[in-house]
Every structure is written in C-alpha cells, then in structure tokens.
C-alpha cells in the first residue's frame, strides 16, 4: 500500500466511529444520501468531542440553535477564521500536539493551529486520495520540482510551505528548486533562479511539477517575456498545482484562464494539467480543481455560503461568506469555520465534469483587513521584482 494512503486511527474509536468511517472513504467525491447520513453522524460525534474538551466550544455549542428541517441535520456553531489569529484553543492535551502551523509570514497576526497525529495524517490522506484519483501519484517516475513557496528554514512553520513540501512526496524528486530563497532570517523571490531552473528542466526527460503561489509563476512568465526568451516545452506529464491566491498584489492579478493560457503558451503544459486549489491552515480539507477547473467539495466536507448581513445560509448562485464544515479535526474546535472569503456555490451538475458534489467559486476577500495571510507576506517579496 502507498504509505500516504495507509490506515490511521481516530484518538478514541469508541467516541468517533463515524468520523473514522467517513475519513476512511476512498472515493474523494462520493455523493448521495448514505454519505450525507454518515457525515451528519460524524459531525454529531466531533461536536460532542470538542464540547467535552473545550470550554470555549462548549459555550458556543450550547448557544447554537438545534438543527431544523430547513438546515443540515447537525449543528454548526460558526467560528470565524480570524478567531484563531487571537486565541489558542485545544481539544487535546498539548503533549499530543504533533504539528504546529501558522497562517502568515514573519509579521502580523497569525492563526495558530495545532494538529494531533490523527488530524494531520487524516488531512494528508485526503490529499493523497485526490492525487491518486487524478493519477498524480507516480512512485516510479522521477520529477523535477519548482516550488513557488518558501525554502525551508529552521523556524519556518507556515502552512503553505508544509503543504508544498508534502506534495513533493507523491513523485520522487530528481531535483527541487525554490522560488522564495532563504537568505538567513528572511526569504527573497528569485525570478532568475526560477527561469534558469525551467530552462534546465526543459533539457531533462523528467516531468516538471510546479507548485505554490500563482502570482510568482505569473511574475516568472512576465520576466521571461520581458527578456525575450522563446517559449519552453517542458516534458510530457508535467503538472502545475497552484494555491495561495493573489492577495496583496491584486493590482497585478490576471484571470486564471489567462494565466493558464500563458502557462500553456510559455511552458507547453496543457490546460487539463494546470489546477488551482483552495485551502487554509484553519481548514485543511483539500479543494482541488476538476478538469473543468471547478473547486468541488470532497466527501469529507460540506460547503455553505452565508449572508454577509445575517449569516443565514444562501441559495445556489448568491455571494456571501464561505462557510466550510468537516468533522475530521479533533485537535482544535475548527470543524465549522467561516472564512474571510466571498464565494458562491453551485450544484455539481452545473459543472459538466463527472463529479457530482457541489462546487464553489471564490470572488475575493470580504472587506479590508489588517491581518496578513501567507500570500500577502509572499506578495510583499515581489515588490520591485516585476
């Protein structure tokens, strides 16, 4: 068995049997009444788990109205993602924390998220299930990696850096290059190093995997064009998996369709091998585009759009706060998180791909915040580089 898909056990099988069963589902986009019933049972278990172990969540849960026929068959107390920028809340003993990740760069407020063994391994296994379904786990095929993320440093515990390095485990690395180079206490964007790596990779026979912030990839393509470099043709089987958005550099943002076209034009990677993702350190469920470039909810989560005025659930097509729910997490009461993103939701059959689960579109951040995300911190490094 692939080690990334190996079994992992919930902290207490007697208290969390349906959480275990839900997270053990092998089809990442299974959809139907049976899956909905299992999800509701798992949510009841995880709510009880956190209510017993977190005074904060217990008071919030007790103040949350019971489920109604018009609402999901489980209570979803709303916790805004910004809460975790100001508070550390745990539902497990601190000695059971296996991993501590943050959401931002070296300054500004950071979400402090803590993961026990079950939580982080369960989330990683979800990513592996989706990569497996797409045929992106290739243990016998070396690849060259270009990571548009932070080069490792001893004190670096950013969620984006952790994720991108984990994604390198799905295919053996012939070489790894980083766009954000560790300069000793800081990181600096290196566009010329990225260009040199891409030109070197073109001459190799190994596929290339480009992972990380889309803004850095765009700035690399822009620099190549400004230098008058001819288009590259990276080896067949190359793959682009982006994440992190354009926050902090919206004045230079281009639509993803244009970015994908530029990648195809300048690097020779076809559109179906270019995928965007959505995720956060507060909610580690993987949302990875289908081949029609829609962010479908996997079986382990549910997505709701909530009114920016009343927080009531909105119907398909309307814009509001993105509300993400999953019972997988046992370390922190973050099973029902309202993000600072504006989004809209559509039914699965409105996509046209083979997946049936609903999908969402992110339309940007809600309002202006002083909080800085990983992408904001990274975007600051690009000032003066384009």
Automatic annotation (TrEMBL):
User: What SUPFAM superfamilies does UniProt report for this protein, alphabetically?
Assistant: Acetyl-CoA synthetase-like
Q: What is this protein called?
A: Acyl-protein synthase
Gene3D superfamilies membership: N-terminal domain of ligase-like
Which InterPro entries does the UniProt entry name for this protein?
ANL_N_sf, LuxE
Q: Taking every annotated instance into account, which residue ranges of this chain make up the domain Acyl-protein synthetase LuxE? A: 77-379
Q: Which organism is it from?
A: Streptomyces katrae
């Amino acid at each position: 068995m692939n080690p990334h898909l190996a079994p992992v056990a919930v902290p207490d099988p007697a208290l969390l049997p349906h959480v275990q069963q839900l997270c053990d589902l092998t089809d990442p986009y299974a959809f139907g009444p049976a899956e909905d019933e299992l999800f509701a049972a798992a949510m009841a278990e995880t709510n009880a788990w956190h209510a017993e172990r977190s005074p904060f969540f217990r008071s919030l849960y007790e103040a949350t109205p019971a489920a109604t026929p018009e609402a999901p068959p489980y209570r979803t107390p709303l916790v805004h993602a910004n809460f975790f920028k100001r508070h550390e809340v745990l539902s497990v003993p601190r000695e059971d924390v296996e991993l501590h990740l943050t959401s931002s760069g070296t300054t500004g407020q950071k979400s402090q998220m803590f993961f026990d063994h079950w939580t982080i391994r369960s989330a990683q296994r979800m990513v592996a299930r989706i990569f497996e379904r797409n045929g992106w786990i290739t243990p016998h095929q070396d690849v060259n990696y270009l990571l548009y993320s932070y080069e490792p440093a001893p004190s670096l515990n950013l969620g984006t850096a952790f994720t991108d390095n984990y994604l390198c485990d799905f295919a053996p690395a012939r070489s790894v290059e980083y766009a954000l180079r560790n300069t000793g206490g800081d990181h600096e964007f290196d566009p010329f190093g990225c260009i040199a790596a891409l030109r070197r990779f073109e001459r190799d026979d190994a596929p290339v995997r480009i992972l990380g912030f889309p803004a850095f990839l765009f700035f690399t393509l822009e620099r190549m064009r400004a230098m008058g470099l001819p288009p590259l043709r990276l080896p067949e089987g190359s793959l682009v998996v982006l994440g992190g958005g354009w926050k902090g550099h919206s004045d230079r943002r281009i639509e993803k369709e244009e970015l994908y076209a530029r990648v195809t034009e300048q690097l020779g990677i076809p559109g179906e091998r270019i995928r965007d993702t959505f995720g956060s350190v507060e909610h580690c469920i993987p949302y990875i585009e289908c081949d029609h470039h829609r962010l479908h909810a996997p079986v382990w989560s549910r997505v709701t759009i909530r009114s920016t005025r009343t927080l009531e659930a909105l119907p398909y097509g309307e814009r509001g706060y993105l509300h993400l729910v999953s019972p997988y997490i046992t370390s922190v009461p973050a099973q029902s998180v309202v993000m600072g993103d504006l989004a809209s939701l559509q039914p699965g059959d409105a996509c046209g791909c083979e997946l049936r689960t609903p999908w969402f579109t992110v339309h940007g951040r809600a309002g202006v915040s002083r909080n800085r995300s990983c992408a904001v911190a990274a975007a600051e490094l690009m000032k003066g580089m384009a």
